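Researcher: Let's run the pair from yesterday's discussion. Sequence first, then C-alpha cells, for each.
Model: Starting with the first of the pair.
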Amino acid sequence: MDQIADRVLVAGTGIAGAASAEALLDTGRTVVVYDRTDSERLRELESRGAGVAAAEEFDPSLLEGVEQVVVSPGFPPGHPLAKAAAERGIETYSEPELAWRLRGPEAPRWLAVTGTNGKTTTTTMLAAMLKAAGLRTAALGNIGEPLVHAANGPYDVLAVELSSQQLHWSRLLAPTAGAMLNLAADHLSWHGGFDAYSKAKTAVWRGQAAVFNRDDPAVAALAEHANARSTAFTLGEPEPGAFGVALGHLVDYTGGSPVPICSVDEVRPAGAHNVANALAAAALASHVGVGPDAVARAVRDYSPEPHRNVVVATVPTGEGAGIRWVDDSKASNPHAAAAALAAYDPVVWIAGGQLKGVDVSDLVERFASRMRAAVLIGVDRAEIADAFARHAPSVPLVVLDGEDDSVMTDVVTAAAAHARPGDTVLLSPAAASYDMFDSYAHRGRAFAAAIGQTLGMNTAGGDA
C-alpha cells in the first residue's frame, strides 16, 4: 500500500478508470479524475470526493501536486498527459498495476496471460482448470470485473488476461507465472513499433515463472532472456519439463515421465491454435499445483467464449453440403484471422475495420487460393483492397461503404451471392471494430442478426 502515493490523478472514466478512482478513494487517497468529456460517471466520482476535470485538450496544470498517474489503456505513451507526466518525473501506471499494489498479505496469487491472440480463450480455460482443482478463482484483467475489486479476495488464484498496453503501464506487477502465447504485429501505432510492443509483452515474465510458446520464433527468442524459471509448450512432442502433444493427446512432461492429459479432439474451439491455448493454460495451472486430472476435466467441460470461430448458421442449399456462416469477430488482427482462414476452404472472407498500422499483404497472399470472394468493410477497406489488387487480383471483391452496423445486411447479401455449396462464409476481420461498432462483440452480433434477417435462419451468434 505504501507503493501508492497520497495524491493520484486517474485518467479515463471507463470501467478500469472508474474502478481505480473508487479504489483509491476507499483507501483515503486524494484523487483527481480527468476525462475528455463530462459524464454521469465523472459526476458520481465527484460526489464521492474526487476532484474532476473534463476537457478535450489535457491541461498540464492538472498535474500540479500529483505524485502518481493511473491511466486507462487507451492512453498511449505519446498522449499529452503521459508525456507531461514523464517530463515531471511522475510515475504512471495502469489499473492492473494498481490492483497489484493494493494486494495485502493474504491476497490471491496471479497467473497471467498475454500474447497477440488467444488471450481470452486461454485465460478462461485457465480459470476452468483452477476451478476443476477446487480453487476459488475468476478470469479477470481485460475481461470480467476490474482487478482492483479482487486484489484481496475472495479468491485463491486469479487468471489474469493482460494486454500489451496494460503491461506497458506496469512497473512492479509480477505474477506467480506468466504466459506469452504468440507474437505478431498489432497495436503498432499505440506502441510506436514492433520492438516496443514485444518489450511490453515481456513484462508478463517479471515473476517467478515464464511460460512460453516454443513454436513461435519471436516468443522463443524473447524467452531466452527471461529472468524466470521457464516452462515451454509446443504442438510437437514435448521435451522434459514442457507441455506438448504426443499420439493425439495433450501431454504433461514436467515430471519424470510424460503424462497424457486428454485427447486433442476434446479441445474446443477446434483448431491447432486452441490446442496451443489449452497447453499454455495447463502449463500455467501446473505452477499452482493443478494436475493432469483437473486439467482434463476442465478441457472436456469448457464452453468457448462467443465470437471466436463459432458457427452461427448452416444454410441448406439443396445440393448436399450447406453453407457455413462463421463468426470470428474477435480476430482483430491478421495473425488471428490467419488461424481462422487456415481452418476453412473454400471461403468467402468478410474483412475490414481499423488495421492499427498493420499490413495485411502477407495474409491476402497466403490465403488467396482458398478464397471464393472477399467482402470488405471499414475505414481501412481500401488498404485491404489494394493488397488484393497486388497479390490476388483474380479474387472477386465487394467493397462496401457503410459507416455503422447497418452495413451487415449488405455484407450478408453480398457474401450469400458468392457462396457455393460447401463454402464457409467467414467473418474474421483482421482489424479492430471501433470505426463502425461498439466492440468486436457488437460486430459479431450484428453479423448474426443480419444472417437471421436476410436468410431467415436461426442463429447462435449471441453472447450467451
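Model: Moving on to the second of the pair.
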Amino acid sequence: MEPNHLMSGRAAPDRDRHKNYPYLLLATDSDVQGAYSGYTQLAKHVPHAALLRNRRREPRTVVERAAQRWINQFTGSSWYRFSSMQPELRAWLQCQTGFEGLVHFLWGERDWGIIDCLPSRRRPKVCATFHACTDTLPATLRASRLRSLDGIILMSETQREFFLNRGVDGEKIEVIPHGIDLSHFHRSEAATSERFTVLSVGSYRRRFDLLRAVVEIIGSVRPEISFVVVASPDKTRELEGLANVRLLTGVSDLDLRRLYSSSSCLLMTLQAATANNAILEAMACELPIVSEDVGGIREYVGEAGVLVPPGSVDALVEAILSLHEDRDSAARIGRIGGIRAKSFDWPIIAARTTAFYKRVLAA
C-alpha cells in the first residue's frame, strides 16, 4: 500500500501536488476527537489518497458572521464554515492542474460547499459521507444540491430514506459503517477491575438528565455500583453532587482505553445517533453495551449489548442490574462485542470505501 499524504491547512508546495493521486479526501477537524478516534482516520487506510485538512473554526467577529451567512446561501450545507473553504479550494485548484480522480468530503454536512458549482476545466467526481441524524438533515442540507453528488456514503440505514425522498438516485448511495482503530482500542487484562463500574463517554447529543436519573436510582438500590462519566465540563456539571459518580474531562487516549478495559459496561443515554465512536471503542475493548435503541445503534451493537426503548429509565436500570448480577453473561456479551468489532476495523472499512470510489468513478 502506498503511504497516504496527510496535508495540513497550509498550502502544499509543487512537489506535494496530488494530481497523480486518484482520491482527494477533505476534512476539517475539531479538538474533540483523540488521535485514534473519528472518521478522519479513514484517510490513513485508503491507498493512493491525499488528505487535505484544516482546523474547523467558528466565525468570531460581526463581519465574519455576516460573511458566513452570505456564503451559506450557496453551500451544500448550512454547517459549512470558512475554514472548510481552504481544503475545498485546494482540491478545486488541483482539478485545474490535472487531477482527474474523486473528491471525498469526509464530513459532508459540514464541509461540502461549492466545489461542484465552481467553473472547472474538468469537474471531478464528488462524494460525501453524511453522519448527521435524520432529525437534523432537513435543516442542514440543501436538498436541491444533493442530486449533484456522484456518490453518497451513509453511516446508517436510517438515513437512506431522507436522500431517496429528495430525489437522489439509490444507485449513488452506499451504507459503509464507521471504523475503529483496533491497533489502539483493545482489551487490557491488566486494567480489569473487580468493582462493577458503569462508564459513560461523550457529550454530543447525550441525555444527561436521563443519565442522572439512572445514577440516582442505582445509587439508592446498589450503592456499591460506581459510575465514571467522561464528558465536556459543561456537561459534567449536570452530574455534580452525586456520591457514586467520578467526573472526568480531557482524558488522554491511553487513559480512555484503560477506562474501557477496567469498566463493567458502557451506558449510552442518547437523543439520536447514526454511528458512535464510544460504542465501537467499547466493543473493541470487550465492554458490554447498555444503550437506548435509537437511530443506527442496533446496526453497530447487534448482540454485543442490551438495547432498551428510548427514554426508559427503568429499562436502563434493569439492564445494568442484570449485568451486575450475572457477571458471566456480561463477560460473554463483551466477548461478542470484541469479535464484532473486528468487522469495523479501519482497513476493512477502507477497502469497502475504495471499492465504492471505483464504482463512482466508473459510473
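Researcher: Give me one sentence on the second I can quote.
Model: The first strand starts at residue 5 and ends at 7.
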